[in-house]
Design goal:
Layout: H1 10-48, H2 53-75, H3 81-98, H4 104-130
Helix pairs in contact: 1-2, 2-3, 3-4
């Protein structure tokens, strides 16, 4: 026989509060790290004296991360599509940077991966709008 603490026990509330603090600390660290990375990228752009497409795509990735963290801070939820957006932009950036060294098959497979991720976003949005979860019981 195992003993479980009662649903509204002090232990449960304490553990949940500690986990909330850890979660907020992690989000704060991610935010600070992303802001530092943005600063480093902007510094790199000014040092090189030019802006490349790969720089812009990297800044978009950073902005998506900040949007994701902001949304999580404000709602406590993280839509699955945001990490998928980041993955799509990351693949596009990888293709852009490495296209000269890639063979045709690799580019096709990466493009297929982007297509699959895009279809996943569409299906998630469709399901969210047309097949809602309904009321919680």
């Amino acid at each position: 026989m195992t003993l479980k603490p009662p649903p509204d026990s002090i232990f449960k509330r304490t553990v949940l509060k500690i986990l909330d603090y850890i979660e907020w600390l992690g989000l704060f660290i991610i935010t600070i790290a992303t802001l530092i990375a943005i600063g480093q990228e902007v510094y790199s752009i000014f040092s090189n004296g030019r802006v490349l497409l790969e720089d812009i795509l990297l800044l978009f990735i950073f902005l998506e991360i900040l949007t994701m963290v902001s949304l999580y801070f404000s709602t406590g939820k993280l839509p699955l599509r945001y990490p998928i957006y980041i993955a799509i932009v990351a693949i596009a950036r990888y293709i852009t940077i490495s296209m000269k060294e890639m063979d045709g098959m690799t580019i096709m497979l990466l493009s297929l991966a982007m297509l699959i991720l895009s279809l996943a976003v569409i299906s998630i949005r469709y399901g969210h709008l047309h097949l809602p979860y309904g009321d919680k019981e």
